[in-house]
């Protein structure tokens, strides 16, 4: 267990989420959901290993949380986790709510991320608890300046309007695009059957990836 020095005051991103619609699942789909949550966590660790602190924490059967040492990676990592989960659980009724909190961390227990404390944890948890029924993603980072925090939150709500409509295959394509992969690489690595680059392009177009990419790059440049 380690405490962060007050004199250093580094900023972190804490992403807290839960699964919408999980209470309606029977035993077999619920086991599949748990496997999907773990699989998505493994992929997040693999591809965001330079920023992810520890493991993705799973609790209450359908809730999860992870911490990133670089706030600029928070939105992309959150969208990646959501996209991979949607791809693993292609039921249209299953989606994730998530809240990103950016701020300081005062306590970060090793191996028990969910027991951490500090502004980033509180902002993330409070934003998730206060999230309206029709919203799936929110952002809170007043330490960045309230104007910037509010602007990022608005951008994310626009991204969310597109993400809510993703099919499993569109989410699969987006998860690769979030890593900066070419459409050819996405086709080779992410689809269980053989698909063409043109098919991947169609999935990305229908997922609204062009608009999402522009908004995401703007958010990240604002956070650096």
Verbal overview:
- This protein has about 220 residues and is α+β, with helices and mostly antiparallel strands.
- The protein has a single domain (about 1-224), classed as 2-Layer Sandwich (Alpha-Beta Plaits).
- Helix content is about 50%, strand content about 20%.
- It has a five-stranded mixed sheet, sandwiched between helices. Strands 1-6 form a two-stranded antiparallel sheet.
- Strand 3 (about 50-60) and strand 4 (about 65-70) form a beta hairpin.
- Helix 1 runs antiparallel to helix 2 (about 75-90) and helix 4 runs antiparallel to helix 8.
- The longest helix is centred in the N-terminal third of the chain and has 21 residues, at about 25-45.
- Mean pLDDT is about 90; it is low at about 1-5.
- Summed up, the domain count is 1
Number of DSSP helices? 8
Distance separating the two termini: 28 Å
Largest sheet data: 5 strands, mixed
Overall CATH architecture? 2-Layer Sandwich
Strand content: 15-25%
Helicity level: 40-55%
The CATH homologous superfamily: Nucleotide cyclase, GGDEF domain
Q: For the CA atoms, what is the radius of gyration?
A: 17 Å
Query: Quick one: CATH class?
Result: Alpha Beta
Query: Whole-number average pLDDT?
Result: 89
DSSP E strands, number: 7
SSE string? EEHEEHEEHEHHHHH
The CATH topology is Alpha-Beta Plaits
Strand order of the largest sheet: 3-4-2-5-7
Which class of secondary structure composition applies to the elements? alpha+beta
Shape: globular
Low-confidence stretches: 1-7
